[in-house]
Amino acid sequence: MWAGLPNGAATALAPDSFRRDAGHCEAAYIGVLDCAEPDLADNADLLMPVATVAGAAPEKQTSAPPRQDAARVTGTIALVSDYRRGGTSRSGGKPALQGGVDVRLPDNWNFGARGSSIAKHGNLELALYGAKTLEIGETDLSIGINALTYPRDPSADYVSVQASASRPVGPIDATVSIIYWPKQAHLGGEDSLYVVARARTPIGAVLGVPVTLGASIGRMRGHLADAHSRSDWSVSLTGRFDTVDLAITYVDNDLGDSRGDPAAVFSITRSF
Question: In 3D, which of 133, 158, 131, 165 has the Cα closest to residue 145?
Answer without folding.
Answer: 131
